[in-house]
Q: What sequence folds into this?
């Protein structure tokens, strides 16, 4: 009986792990001392499923308050630039951002025709004075399964 419970616990853990996973983050310029420090990125689900909502949560900290700004996001597919978008910082986190820890979270549904494979994302954060606060890059993948019927 205990062996069956152990197997069920392992199975449950295996089923839960793909739904949210931290990913490695690199600063765009390792020599720059960015005002916003990023401690991690969690992508849920991982891999991202085509036609389903995906959430990118970026844990960060700042030494001074941020009253507004923007996020510039660039996406590459196997090294080829394929998409850019800009978001109001205050639409992705609560503003003003107070000194200390905060989270920037963005959810998006990728079209069902999005090709599966390896992607890289670069995110630049700017304050209301257009000063760059941070620049990070990380990789993510889009799975082969789509919830939207391919036509």
A:
């Amino acid at each position: 009986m205990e062996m069956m419970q152990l197997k069920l616990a392992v199975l449950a853990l295996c089923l839960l792990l793909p739904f949210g996973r931290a990913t490695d983050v690199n600063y765009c310029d390792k020599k720059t001392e960015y005002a916003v420090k990023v401690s991690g990125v969690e992508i849920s689900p991982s891999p991202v499923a085509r036609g389903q909502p995906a959430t990118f949560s970026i844990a960060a900290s700042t030494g001074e308050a941020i009253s507004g700004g923007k996020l510039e996001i660039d996406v590459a597919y196997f090294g080829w630039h394929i998409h850019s978008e800009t978001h109001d910082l205050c639409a992705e986190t609560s503003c003003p951002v107070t000194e200390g820890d905060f989270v920037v979270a963005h959810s998006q549904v990728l079209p069902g025709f999005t090709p599966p494979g390896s992607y890289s994302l670069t995110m630049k954060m700017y304050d209301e004075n257009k000063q760059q606060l941070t620049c990070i890059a990380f990789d993510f993948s889009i799975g082969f399964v789509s919830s939207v019927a391919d036509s």
Notes: Confidence is low (pLDDT under 50) at residues 1-20, 147-151.
